[in-house]
Amino acid sequence: MPFTLGQRWISDTENELGLGTVVAQDARMVTLLFSASGENRLYARSDAPITRVMFNPGDTVSSHEGWQLLIDTVEEYRGLADLHRYTSG
Predict the structure, then answer these.
(1) Is residue 48 located within the same domain as residue 13?
(2) Which domain holds residue 66?
(3) What does the H/E/C string look like for the chain?
(4) Which residues have a Cβ under 8 Å from the Cβ of 83 and sit 6 or more positions away?
(5) Is position 76 within any domain?
(6) Pairing verdict, β 8-11 and 39-44
(7) How far are the Cα atoms of 12, 19, 21, 53 from residue 15, in angstroms, in the given order?
(8) What are the tens digits of pLDDT across the range 3-43?
(9) Residues 58 and 28: beta-carbon distance below 8 Å
(10) Is 47 in the same domain as 62?
């Protein structure tokens, strides 16, 4: 799996952790920080039980803080998604 610092992923086996961010990587391992739960997880790059989170135009994204975003457009650059969004409440 290709990993880039800042990418967002979810754990397939521990979905209660919430959304994770790639904070470190090397040739064999990747570290995700799950901000909502305050947890870090270290995964083997070759068989990590995680799924990349990608949003599409028209998606509404809800924050654990109660706000929402409506995604207008998405552009990917060097492995990171740049979301063009509008706050909807």
Answers:
(1) yes
(2) 54-89
(3) CCCCCCCEEEECCCHHHCEEEEEEECCCEEEEEECCCCEEEEEEHHHCCEEECCCCCCCEEECCCCCEEEEEEEEEECCEEEEEEEECC
(4) 55, 69, 71, 73, 74
(5) yes
(6) unpaired
(7) 6, 8, 14, 12
(8) 989 899 999 999 999 889 999 999 999 999 998 899 999 99
(9) no
(10) no
pLDDT of residue 82: 56
Residue pair 34/23 in contact by the 8 Å Cβ criterion: no
CA distance 45 to 35: 21
Do 37 and 58 belong to one domain?
Answer: no
**Residue entry with tokens 């990418």:** 7
